[in-house]
Amino acid sequence: MLIPVTTEQQQWVETTLNAMTLPQCVGQLLCPIHPHFTTADWLDLFKKVPIGSLTVRTTSSEELREQLQVLQDHSAVPLLAAADLEHGAIALTDGTEFPWLMGAGAANDAELMAMMGQVTAAEARYAGLHWTFAPVIDLNYNFNNPITNIRALSDQPERVIRLATAFVRGLQADGRLAATAKHFPGDGIDDRDQHLCTTVNNLPFEQWRATYGRVWRAIIEAGVMSIMPGHISLPDYQNFADRPEEAPPATLSPKLLNDLLRTELGFDGLLLSDASGMIGMASRVPSEERAVQSIKAGLDVYLFPDTLKDFERLVQAVEQGRLSEERVQQAARRVLEMKARLNLHRDPFGPK
Asked: Which end of the chain is more exposed for a tag (fewer CB within 10 A), N or C?
Protein backbone atom coordinates (compact mmCIF):
# COMPACT_ATOMS: atom_id res chain seq x y z
CA MET A 1 0.00 0.00 0.00
CA LEU A 2 1.00 3.66 -0.17
CA ILE A 3 3.86 4.61 2.09
CA PRO A 4 2.32 6.89 4.74
CA VAL A 5 3.44 10.48 4.73
CA THR A 6 5.61 11.44 7.69
CA THR A 7 4.47 13.92 10.33
CA GLU A 8 6.67 16.58 8.75
CA GLN A 9 5.34 15.87 5.26
CA GLN A 10 1.74 15.93 6.48
CA GLN A 11 2.31 19.23 8.22
CA TRP A 12 3.62 20.72 4.96
CA VAL A 13 0.54 19.42 3.11
CA GLU A 14 -1.87 20.90 5.65
CA THR A 15 -0.10 24.24 5.87
CA THR A 16 0.13 24.54 2.09
CA LEU A 17 -3.47 23.50 1.43
CA ASN A 18 -4.88 25.79 4.12
CA ALA A 19 -3.10 28.75 2.56
CA MET A 20 -4.45 28.07 -0.95
CA THR A 21 -7.23 29.97 -2.65
CA LEU A 22 -9.76 28.16 -4.84
CA PRO A 23 -7.91 29.09 -8.07
CA GLN A 24 -4.65 27.82 -6.58
CA CYS A 25 -6.30 24.51 -5.68
CA VAL A 26 -7.73 24.22 -9.19
CA GLY A 27 -4.31 24.88 -10.67
CA GLN A 28 -2.95 21.79 -8.89
CA LEU A 29 -5.36 19.63 -10.91
CA LEU A 30 -3.94 20.54 -14.32
CA CYS A 31 -0.93 18.89 -15.99
CA PRO A 32 -0.36 20.67 -19.31
CA ILE A 33 2.03 19.91 -22.12
CA HIS A 34 3.40 22.66 -24.33
CA PRO A 35 6.33 21.02 -26.15
CA HIS A 36 7.46 24.19 -27.90
CA PHE A 37 7.33 26.47 -24.86
CA THR A 38 10.44 28.33 -23.86
CA THR A 39 11.15 29.06 -20.21
CA ALA A 40 9.72 32.55 -20.77
CA ASP A 41 6.53 31.03 -22.20
CA TRP A 42 6.09 28.88 -19.09
CA LEU A 43 6.67 31.86 -16.80
CA ASP A 44 4.06 33.82 -18.71
CA LEU A 45 1.58 30.95 -18.25
CA PHE A 46 2.35 30.87 -14.51
CA LYS A 47 1.06 34.44 -14.24
CA LYS A 48 -2.33 33.28 -15.53
CA VAL A 49 -2.64 29.71 -14.19
CA PRO A 50 -0.99 28.38 -10.98
CA ILE A 51 -0.41 24.93 -12.47
CA GLY A 52 0.63 22.10 -10.18
CA SER A 53 2.47 19.98 -12.72
CA LEU A 54 3.72 19.91 -16.28
CA THR A 55 4.81 17.32 -18.83
CA VAL A 56 8.09 17.59 -20.71
CA ARG A 57 9.21 16.25 -24.05
CA THR A 58 12.65 15.24 -25.26
CA THR A 59 15.61 17.36 -24.22
CA SER A 60 18.99 16.86 -22.57
CA SER A 61 19.21 16.39 -18.82
CA GLU A 62 21.30 19.56 -18.35
CA GLU A 63 18.97 21.70 -20.46
CA LEU A 64 15.93 20.39 -18.63
CA ARG A 65 17.55 20.81 -15.23
CA GLU A 66 18.44 24.41 -16.04
CA GLN A 67 14.90 25.19 -17.21
CA LEU A 68 13.21 23.48 -14.29
CA GLN A 69 15.41 25.27 -11.77
CA VAL A 70 14.03 28.55 -13.08
CA LEU A 71 10.45 27.29 -13.13
CA GLN A 72 10.69 25.88 -9.61
CA ASP A 73 12.05 29.21 -8.36
CA HIS A 74 8.98 30.96 -9.80
CA SER A 75 6.39 28.50 -8.50
CA ALA A 76 4.80 29.16 -5.10
CA VAL A 77 4.23 25.41 -4.64
CA PRO A 78 6.83 22.95 -5.99
CA LEU A 79 5.99 21.71 -9.47
CA LEU A 80 5.62 18.07 -10.38
CA ALA A 81 7.59 17.56 -13.59
CA ALA A 82 6.37 14.52 -15.50
CA ALA A 83 7.35 12.48 -18.54
CA ASP A 84 6.41 9.21 -20.22
CA LEU A 85 9.35 7.00 -19.20
CA GLU A 86 8.00 3.57 -20.08
CA HIS A 87 11.36 1.96 -20.88
CA GLY A 88 14.02 4.21 -19.42
CA ALA A 89 14.67 7.94 -19.14
CA ILE A 90 13.73 8.32 -22.78
CA ALA A 91 12.58 11.93 -22.41
CA LEU A 92 16.26 12.78 -21.97
CA THR A 93 18.49 12.69 -25.04
CA ASP A 94 21.29 11.44 -22.80
CA GLY A 95 19.12 9.06 -20.76
CA THR A 96 19.45 5.28 -20.73
CA GLU A 97 17.00 3.50 -23.03
CA PHE A 98 15.94 -0.01 -22.10
CA PRO A 99 13.92 -2.52 -24.19
CA TRP A 100 10.19 -2.01 -24.58
CA LEU A 101 8.25 -3.89 -21.93
CA MET A 102 7.49 -6.80 -24.23
CA GLY A 103 11.25 -7.45 -24.34
CA ALA A 104 11.59 -6.94 -20.61
CA GLY A 105 8.73 -9.37 -20.06
CA ALA A 106 10.45 -11.95 -22.25
CA ALA A 107 13.62 -11.63 -20.14
CA ASN A 108 11.39 -12.40 -17.13
CA ASP A 109 13.89 -11.17 -14.52
CA ALA A 110 12.51 -9.20 -11.56
CA GLU A 111 15.98 -8.06 -10.48
CA LEU A 112 16.60 -6.52 -13.90
CA MET A 113 13.20 -4.80 -13.73
CA ALA A 114 14.05 -3.30 -10.36
CA MET A 115 17.42 -2.12 -11.69
CA MET A 116 15.71 -0.60 -14.73
CA GLY A 117 13.45 1.34 -12.40
CA GLN A 118 16.32 2.52 -10.22
CA VAL A 119 18.40 3.74 -13.17
CA THR A 120 15.42 5.50 -14.73
CA ALA A 121 14.59 7.21 -11.45
CA ALA A 122 18.14 8.37 -10.77
CA GLU A 123 18.57 9.89 -14.23
CA ALA A 124 15.11 11.45 -14.21
CA ARG A 125 15.38 13.02 -10.76
CA TYR A 126 18.78 14.55 -11.55
CA ALA A 127 17.17 16.38 -14.47
CA GLY A 128 14.31 17.55 -12.26
CA LEU A 129 11.68 14.98 -13.23
CA HIS A 130 9.53 13.45 -10.48
CA TRP A 131 6.73 11.53 -12.14
CA THR A 132 6.60 8.89 -14.85
CA PHE A 133 3.50 7.68 -16.68
CA ALA A 134 4.67 4.07 -16.35
CA PRO A 135 4.44 1.12 -16.09
CA VAL A 136 1.88 -0.29 -18.49
CA ILE A 137 0.31 -3.22 -16.63
CA ASP A 138 -2.31 -4.13 -19.24
CA LEU A 139 -2.58 -7.80 -20.18
CA ASN A 140 -1.61 -8.49 -23.77
CA TYR A 141 -4.51 -10.80 -24.59
CA ASN A 142 -5.05 -9.47 -28.13
CA PHE A 143 -1.89 -9.09 -30.21
CA ASN A 144 -3.77 -6.73 -32.52
CA ASN A 145 -4.36 -4.22 -29.73
CA PRO A 146 -2.40 -1.08 -30.73
CA ILE A 147 -2.00 0.20 -27.16
CA THR A 148 -0.62 -2.89 -25.44
CA ASN A 149 1.36 -4.82 -28.05
CA ILE A 150 5.10 -4.15 -27.45
CA ARG A 151 4.28 -1.87 -24.48
CA ALA A 152 2.86 -4.69 -22.33
CA LEU A 153 4.86 -7.13 -20.25
CA SER A 154 2.86 -10.28 -20.83
CA ASP A 155 -0.52 -11.96 -21.16
CA GLN A 156 0.14 -13.84 -17.91
CA PRO A 157 -1.11 -12.07 -14.75
CA GLU A 158 1.50 -13.63 -12.47
CA ARG A 159 4.38 -12.55 -14.70
CA VAL A 160 3.01 -9.02 -14.96
CA ILE A 161 2.61 -8.86 -11.18
CA ARG A 162 6.13 -10.10 -10.46
CA LEU A 163 7.85 -7.82 -12.99
CA ALA A 164 5.69 -4.71 -12.69
CA THR A 165 5.85 -4.60 -8.90
CA ALA A 166 9.65 -4.91 -9.06
CA PHE A 167 9.75 -2.06 -11.58
CA VAL A 168 7.54 0.14 -9.42
CA ARG A 169 9.67 -0.47 -6.34
CA GLY A 170 12.76 0.44 -8.32
CA LEU A 171 11.21 3.64 -9.66
CA GLN A 172 9.92 4.73 -6.26
CA ALA A 173 12.94 3.72 -4.15
CA ASP A 174 14.07 6.53 -1.82
CA GLY A 175 11.17 8.69 -3.01
CA ARG A 176 12.93 9.55 -6.28
CA LEU A 177 10.16 9.04 -8.83
CA ALA A 178 6.41 8.47 -8.65
CA ALA A 179 5.23 5.58 -10.80
CA THR A 180 1.88 5.53 -12.62
CA ALA A 181 0.25 2.18 -13.37
CA LYS A 182 -1.88 2.27 -16.52
CA HIS A 183 -4.46 1.88 -18.07
CA PHE A 184 -7.25 1.12 -15.56
CA PRO A 185 -9.44 -0.99 -15.75
CA GLY A 186 -7.20 -2.66 -18.34
CA ASP A 187 -6.55 -2.56 -22.06
CA GLY A 188 -5.55 -5.48 -24.29
CA ILE A 189 -8.86 -7.26 -24.87
CA ASP A 190 -10.16 -5.76 -28.10
CA ASP A 191 -8.32 -4.27 -31.06
CA ARG A 192 -9.51 -0.70 -30.61
CA ASP A 193 -7.34 2.36 -30.02
CA GLN A 194 -8.28 4.79 -27.23
CA HIS A 195 -6.94 7.59 -29.41
CA LEU A 196 -9.79 6.88 -31.85
CA CYS A 197 -12.68 5.55 -29.74
CA THR A 198 -13.55 4.24 -26.30
CA THR A 199 -11.90 0.87 -25.74
CA VAL A 200 -14.13 -1.87 -24.32
CA ASN A 201 -12.90 -4.44 -21.80
CA ASN A 202 -15.73 -6.92 -22.34
CA LEU A 203 -14.73 -9.54 -19.75
CA PRO A 204 -17.41 -10.71 -17.33
CA PHE A 205 -16.57 -9.06 -14.03
CA GLU A 206 -15.60 -12.26 -12.21
CA GLN A 207 -13.19 -13.08 -15.02
CA TRP A 208 -11.85 -9.51 -14.88
CA ARG A 209 -11.39 -9.85 -11.11
CA ALA A 210 -9.40 -13.09 -11.59
CA THR A 211 -7.08 -11.55 -14.22
CA TYR A 212 -6.83 -7.78 -14.45
CA GLY A 213 -8.19 -7.37 -10.94
CA ARG A 214 -5.38 -9.49 -9.49
CA VAL A 215 -2.80 -7.35 -11.27
CA TRP A 216 -4.36 -4.08 -10.11
CA ARG A 217 -4.66 -5.26 -6.53
CA ALA A 218 -1.01 -6.36 -6.51
CA ILE A 219 0.28 -3.09 -7.94
CA ILE A 220 -1.74 -1.14 -5.36
CA GLU A 221 -0.40 -3.32 -2.55
CA ALA A 222 3.12 -2.66 -3.90
CA GLY A 223 2.57 1.04 -3.14
CA VAL A 224 2.25 2.60 -6.59
CA MET A 225 1.78 6.35 -6.06
CA SER A 226 -0.55 7.05 -8.98
CA ILE A 227 -2.84 5.28 -11.41
CA MET A 228 -3.90 6.36 -14.88
CA PRO A 229 -7.47 5.35 -15.76
CA GLY A 230 -7.80 4.92 -19.50
CA HIS A 231 -10.58 5.78 -21.90
CA ILE A 232 -11.71 2.19 -21.35
CA SER A 233 -15.04 0.83 -20.20
CA LEU A 234 -15.85 -2.30 -18.23
CA PRO A 235 -19.50 -2.78 -19.22
CA ASP A 236 -20.30 -5.82 -17.09
CA TYR A 237 -19.31 -4.01 -13.89
CA GLN A 238 -20.92 -0.75 -15.02
CA ASN A 239 -24.32 -2.38 -15.61
CA PHE A 240 -24.02 -1.96 -19.38
CA ALA A 241 -23.50 -5.61 -20.28
CA ASP A 242 -26.46 -5.57 -22.69
CA ARG A 243 -25.35 -2.30 -24.35
CA PRO A 244 -21.54 -2.14 -24.00
CA GLU A 245 -21.05 0.69 -26.49
CA GLU A 246 -22.93 3.02 -24.14
CA ALA A 247 -20.69 2.37 -21.13
CA PRO A 248 -18.62 5.47 -20.31
CA PRO A 249 -14.84 5.23 -20.14
CA ALA A 250 -13.17 5.03 -16.74
CA THR A 251 -12.04 8.66 -17.11
CA LEU A 252 -15.70 9.70 -16.84
CA SER A 253 -17.07 6.91 -14.64
CA PRO A 254 -17.58 7.44 -10.88
CA LYS A 255 -18.56 3.78 -10.65
CA LEU A 256 -15.18 2.60 -11.93
CA LEU A 257 -13.12 5.27 -10.17
CA ASN A 258 -14.87 5.40 -6.80
CA ASP A 259 -16.68 2.08 -6.38
CA LEU A 260 -14.15 -0.25 -7.98
CA LEU A 261 -10.77 1.47 -7.76
CA ARG A 262 -11.12 3.46 -4.55
CA THR A 263 -13.52 1.32 -2.50
CA GLU A 264 -13.10 -2.28 -3.63
CA LEU A 265 -9.39 -2.17 -4.54
CA GLY A 266 -8.51 0.32 -1.82
CA PHE A 267 -6.41 2.79 -3.80
CA ASP A 268 -5.96 6.16 -2.09
CA GLY A 269 -3.22 7.64 -4.24
CA LEU A 270 -3.44 10.09 -7.12
CA LEU A 271 -5.63 9.44 -10.16
CA LEU A 272 -4.42 10.96 -13.42
CA SER A 273 -6.47 10.96 -16.61
CA ASP A 274 -5.06 9.61 -19.82
CA ALA A 275 -4.53 12.31 -22.45
CA SER A 276 -7.69 14.38 -22.55
CA GLY A 277 -7.66 14.96 -26.30
CA MET A 278 -8.01 11.27 -27.16
CA ILE A 279 -11.28 10.47 -28.89
CA GLY A 280 -12.03 7.72 -26.38
CA MET A 281 -13.07 10.50 -23.99
CA ALA A 282 -13.44 13.51 -26.27
CA SER A 283 -16.30 11.84 -28.16
CA ARG A 284 -18.29 11.46 -24.93
CA VAL A 285 -18.32 14.99 -23.51
CA PRO A 286 -18.21 18.47 -25.11
CA SER A 287 -14.79 20.13 -24.86
CA GLU A 288 -16.06 22.81 -22.48
CA GLU A 289 -17.24 20.14 -20.01
CA ARG A 290 -14.47 17.56 -20.31
CA ALA A 291 -12.23 18.75 -17.46
CA VAL A 292 -15.16 19.44 -15.16
CA GLN A 293 -16.76 16.04 -15.69
CA SER A 294 -13.43 14.22 -15.29
CA ILE A 295 -12.64 15.86 -11.95
CA LYS A 296 -16.24 15.45 -10.82
CA ALA A 297 -16.09 11.72 -11.66
CA GLY A 298 -13.11 11.26 -9.34
CA LEU A 299 -9.90 12.09 -11.21
CA ASP A 300 -7.35 14.22 -9.37
CA VAL A 301 -5.28 15.49 -12.29
CA TYR A 302 -6.44 16.30 -15.81
CA LEU A 303 -3.75 15.52 -18.38
CA PHE A 304 -3.01 17.82 -21.32
CA PRO A 305 -5.69 20.46 -20.77
CA ASP A 306 -6.47 23.49 -22.87
CA THR A 307 -4.70 25.16 -20.00
CA LEU A 308 -6.17 28.62 -19.65
CA LYS A 309 -9.67 27.68 -20.81
CA ASP A 310 -9.93 24.55 -18.66
CA PHE A 311 -8.60 26.43 -15.64
CA GLU A 312 -11.34 29.03 -16.08
CA ARG A 313 -13.97 26.35 -16.69
CA LEU A 314 -13.10 24.51 -13.49
CA VAL A 315 -13.12 27.67 -11.36
CA GLN A 316 -16.44 28.70 -12.89
CA ALA A 317 -17.96 25.25 -12.32
CA VAL A 318 -17.17 25.51 -8.59
CA GLU A 319 -18.55 29.04 -8.40
CA GLN A 320 -21.75 27.87 -10.12
CA GLY A 321 -22.13 24.85 -7.85
CA ARG A 322 -21.67 22.27 -10.64
CA LEU A 323 -18.42 21.01 -9.08
CA SER A 324 -17.99 20.95 -5.33
CA GLU A 325 -15.14 22.81 -3.67
CA GLU A 326 -14.74 19.76 -1.44
CA ARG A 327 -13.97 17.58 -4.51
CA VAL A 328 -11.40 20.12 -5.73
CA GLN A 329 -9.71 20.29 -2.35
CA GLN A 330 -9.69 16.49 -2.06
CA ALA A 331 -7.93 16.25 -5.42
CA ALA A 332 -5.50 19.06 -4.57
CA ARG A 333 -4.67 17.31 -1.31
CA ARG A 334 -3.75 14.12 -3.16
CA VAL A 335 -1.47 16.10 -5.47
CA LEU A 336 0.22 17.76 -2.49
CA GLU A 337 0.58 14.42 -0.71
CA MET A 338 2.39 12.96 -3.69
CA LYS A 339 4.68 15.99 -3.78
CA ALA A 340 5.35 15.48 -0.08
CA ARG A 341 6.16 11.77 -0.55
CA LEU A 342 8.71 12.88 -3.15
CA ASN A 343 10.03 15.56 -0.77
CA LEU A 344 9.69 18.29 -3.39
CA HIS A 345 9.27 20.84 -0.61
CA ARG A 346 12.82 20.01 0.45
CA ASP A 347 14.60 19.53 -2.86
CA PRO A 348 12.98 19.12 -6.31
CA PHE A 349 16.28 17.70 -7.63
CA GLY A 350 17.25 15.35 -4.79
CA PRO A 351 18.01 12.81 -3.47
CA LYS A 352 21.31 12.65 -5.28
From this structure: C
